[in-house]
Amino acid sequence: MGQMILGSSTHVFLPQRLHPGLLDALANGGAKTIEVFAARYHFDYADRAQVKEIAGWFRSNPVTASLHQPLTTETTFSRHAAMSLDLIDREKMHRIEAMDEVKRALEAAEQIPFESCVLHLGMKGDKWSEATLEFALTAVDHVKAFASPLGVKLLLENLQNEVATPEHLVDILRIGHFDSVGVCLDTGHAHLSEGGIAGAFEVLKGRVVEVHLHDNNGMRDEHLWPASGSERSVAAAKGSIDWAETYRLLDTLPAATRGVLEIGYEGFETAEAVSRMTGEVLSHRTRLLEEAAAFDEGQG
């Protein structure tokens, strides 16, 4: 069995202010790595007291930390708030605003030992063009120059647009000579794409540092808990990813690749429920891999 480091994103608690009790809930569920979702109403990277409090928790617990870039500058949570920060926006002013906000979030790495930061290139439905390629190269170069001295590795995530398809992410990394930049393979987004998870994996596997684990029905990005077949809980009843096959695939990635549950915040906002579900999903993965190994042995 592979050595994937399993954990969770604080995205599941997005409407709440992040505090040590919520991090405890994820760790108690078995998370060995936690991705902190940067949103001012959740983790306010500009609030010194909160940054210090979160840094203290990571220093006292055997859990590694990563960061997800902010997607909005809103300071109060709203279920209907649209993503407003776009690193490859057509307007230069908006691109600069997005880069500045990402850098503000990265400054928290001076205290919190973030190993990496996930970046989004573009909004849903954005088209691929010479201009978007140019904007992407500039954004990654600019943010990388800021992140590197802080010891933070940038990871580009596959999204539901033409710019951040697996093939175009590889193009961006190759053309920009971004040898130190990795990829965050998002299983939910890949499941919604033409090539599916297996196709995205094949293109990106040499660059994957982190994997976002979540399920959907193949129609829209729902961020459901991973589950399989008859073992699907009510929470994941609509998901259609084959997790036995997906885990087998991911298990071939290098040791220390991070597998992070990035779950929607609706319906599972109590710390206890999240802790319980995290534990169930992580043990379910172990069981599926053990069954696969036993099957392979029987075939041998």
From TrEMBL:
Pfam families in UniProt: AP_endonuc_2
Key words of the record: Isomerase
One MF term in the entry's GO annotations: isomerase activity
Gene3D superfamilies: Divalent-metal-dependent TIM barrel enzymes (3.20.20.150)
Residues of the Xylose isomerase-like TIM barrel domain: 24-264
Matching InterPro entries: IolE/XylAMocC-like, Xyl_isomerase-like_sf, Xyl_isomerase-like_TIM-brl
Name of this chain's protein: Xylose isomerase domain-containing protein TIM barrel
